[in-house]
Amino acid sequence: MPQLTFTNLSPFAARKFMTHRRIIAAAAAGLLAISYLPPSLAEQVDVELFSAVLRAVGPKGEGHAEASKAWQRLSEADAQQLPEILAGMKGSGRLGENWFRAAIEAVAQREVRNGGKLPIDALEGFLADTRQSPRARRLAYELIASVDASAEERLIPGLLNDPSLELRRDAVALALKSAAAAEQAGEKDEAARIYAEAFAATRELDQIKEVTKKLREFEQQVDVPRHMGFVLDWHLIGPFDNTGMRAFDVAYPPEKEIDLAASYEGKVGQVQWKPHRTTDEFGIVDLNQIFERPKDGNDYRLTNEHKGAIGYAVAIFESEQARDVEIRMGCINANKIWLNGELLTANQVYHAGMEVDQYVAQGRLKQGKNEILVKVCQNEQEESWAQRWQFQLRVCDSLGTAVLAKN
C-alpha cells in the first residue's frame, strides 16, 4: 500500500488532513512538493495553508525559504480571495507582512491588467472591520483607491479615530487640507474647528507640531504635554559616579529603594532628592541644569556640564485602573527604565542622538500609585556635541494615545 502523503491526496482530502495544530508542519511538507504537483492540484490555492507559512516567518531568517514559495502560491489566487488573504495577515510580523503585500499586489495587478474587477464591496467591508490587522486594512484601502478615484473623499474622513496609525494619518492629512481650504476662503471659525478636531485625532509628531502651530495662529490653547502624555513632575537625585562608564550596571541606592527623604553619598558629596517640574513642551528634563556642578579644588568649574555621572529620576504615577501601557523615552545618554521595580529596558548607548519615542518599553500599571524610575548615565567625552545630559518620557498606549495620571 502506497504511503499517504500530501501530494497524493485530492484537494478536498488534503484540506481535511490539515488540522489547525499541524498547519505549519503540513505547509512545510506541501511546499517541498510544490514543484511535483500535477496541474489539477497546482491550480488550487489554499489561502489558509500558505498564509500560515507567511505568519511563521521569523526575524532571523526562520521560514524565509518556505515563505518565498508560499507567497508565489498566494499570488496565484483569484481576486475574489483578496479579503481572505488580507485576513491572513493578522498576527504576522513585519517580515511576513512584506510577503503578504507582494502576493496581494500581484493578485490585484494581474486582475486589473486582464480587464477584471477587484471585489470592492468585500474590500470595503474588510476596511471597516477594525478587528483586522491595521496594516492589512491600510492595504485594503490602497487596493480600493487604486481603482476608485472617489475612495479618499468617501472613506478617509470617517477614519480620524481609527486604530490604524496609517489610516488615521491619512484622515488627519485630509482634515488639514480641509482646514486650509476653509482658512483660505475666510471661514476662520470653521478652519479652527477642523484644526482642533485634527489635533485631537493626531498621534504622530510631525502632524502634532503642524496642527499646534496652526491652532496657535488662531490664538487657541494647545496642551502638547497632556496630548502626548509627557511626564512633567519628577524627583531627581545625583550625580553619582560613572567614571570610565563603569556604573551602568552598578545599583546605586535609588535602584534598591525609593525614599524621597533619604540622602546618599554621591560623586561630589551628599545628594538628596529634589522635586522638579519641567516646563519644556516635550517634557525634556535637563540634568545639567539641576544638579550641583562638580568642584575643582575649592572652586566650581566654569561650566555646569557633568562628566562621568549618573542621575536618577522618579515619577509617582497614579493610575485609575490596572492596564498595559508603553513607556516611551527620548534620551541622548545611556539609560534604564523601571516600572514598580521591574526593569523594562536598558540602553547602553551614548550620544547617538535624541528624539521623541526613541526607546519604547512595554509595562503594566497597577491601580493606584506606580513608580517610574529612570537612570541616565553621562560619559566623559569632551566634544561639544557630547555635553547634553537629558531625557524625556511619556506614558501612552500602543497607538501613542496619552495615558494620563490621575489628578
Please explain how this structure is put together.
The chain is α+β, with helices and mostly antiparallel strands. The chain folds into 3 domains: 6-148; 161-222, Up-down Bundle (Methane Monooxygenase Hydroxylase, Chain G, domain 1); 228-396, Jelly Rolls, CATH 2.60.120. The chain contains 14 helices and 14 strands. The protein has helices at residues 11-17, 23-32, 39-42, 47-55, 64-74, 82-87, 94-113, 120-128, 134-147, 151-155, 165-184, 188-201, 205-217, 224-228, and strands at 233-241, 263-266, 269-272, 274-277, 285-286, 295-296, 299-300, 309-319, 323-331, 334-339, 342-347, 359-365, 368-378, 390-396. Strands 4-1-8-13-10-11 form a 6-stranded antiparallel β-sheet, with no helix packed on it. Strands 5-14-9-12 form a 4-stranded antiparallel β-sheet, with no helix packed on it. Strand 6 (295-296) and strand 7 (299-300) form a beta hairpin. Helix 7 (94-113) packs parallel to helix 9 (134-147) and helix 11 (165-184) runs antiparallel to helix 12 (188-201). The chain starts with 10 loop residues before the first helix and ends in an 11-residue tail after the last strand.
